[in-house]
Amino acid sequence: MKEFNNYTLPLVAEFELLLPRSSRVADLGTGSGANALYLASRGHSVLALDRDKSYLETLRTTAKELGCTALQFVNKDIAELNTVIGEQQYDAMLCLRAFQHVRPKEKVYTAISAMQKATIVGGYNFVFSYCAEEYEQAIRPDLSLLSPTELKELYANEGWNIRHYEYRQGTVDTTGVDSRAVMIAQRI
Q1: Residue 179 · residue 169 · CB < 8 Å
Q2: 5-15+22-187 is classed in which CATH architecture?
């Protein structure tokens, strides 16, 4: 199989070390699918979900070229996660750089709740979310941006242990958002 670690987020490779062999993983808002491909190449069964059909078609072609067969492709919005997975349980749920595209913002909360519900005890949620202070969110009303502490607060309830949390403050302007939170939480 072709090597593709070089275009995968380094954090995903580190995260993968936490997972038991042959884990069930969902990559939500998979986009190009680099993370899904990497995890599937490591022996995990991966659900690759994205609302953009063209991303999934490209991912399907790439997976076929790489001989990667442990992928399931679902053309749905992250906000529809409950209907996609039903009562299925996963060892890990990833949502990296995708929540900002979920509108309205309330659907982000619905998606996070569905991620939490679908994660087995001992399993993980890995989230990378762009953030903005309340006053900055008006600058980019086209994006759903969590506040700097909001992601952490959504996992601060009983049943979750935040294993890693990092917030990096950058800028929010008309060209983009550079503030972000990265979190790995384990269901206990």
Answers
A1: yes
A2: 3-Layer(aba) Sandwich (3.40)
